[in-house]
Amino acid sequence: MTRLIPVLLYHSVSERAAARDRRWTVAPRKFASHLTAVSASGRTPMTITEIAEGLRGERALPSRPLGITFDDGFSDTYAAVSELLSRGLRSTVYVTTGEIGARNRLSALQLTRLGGMASVELGAHGVHHMRLDQLDDPELAAEVRDSKAQLEHIVGASVHSFAYPHGAYDRAVREAVVVAGYRSAAAVKNALAHDHDDPFAIARWTVTAGTSSGRISEILDGERVPSAWPRERLRTRAYRAARRGRRGLARLGEPR
Asked: What's the predicted TM-score (pTM) here?
């Protein structure tokens, strides 16, 4: 029997949000109700690398595993993780390293403190939050490799997990992550991971400003949400080809 592994993807947890971030910003009171639903689910929170180890058979997965993740490195993630810790919940925080210390982003000191917390995994999220499947090989390698090195330098510890910015990846991007020495990677897919999922493309479900605690409970019970598919979908490949085509046309128009 396939074991479902819900992995929740948060961005910002705040009362205020810039217009471009509003959809992805969850109010603190609503976030607290989500965590109440998580605690009531009976699921066992794990970091992404721990889930990946379970998928590879390197550790036993609990009967009802769960992942909680944060992308980008918003400064309010620090308080959100503190709320998780107060409830005994583990999490993985993915940081865009080129934005560390910027306005509304985590500082180096906050990252150092998070890195010292046993229930928190820090992961890389690229340097510039670019769509990696649109980059040439040297650019791709630099984004993946440098974000790992920069984060490791700040926290003084190894970084084992990567999250694909915008959820955009293909075979070459996945390979670059493996070559860079990561042990796990998180995709998006808005689907449930499972015990046959790819450790380097673990499916996540995106939480938005309008997500209710009832919907979180449904996700945790596997209701009205698909399981992750084994290969990239045709429409994803078509969408990527269209983006690359537009980028190529734009480059042709650049002055030489």
From this structure: 0.90
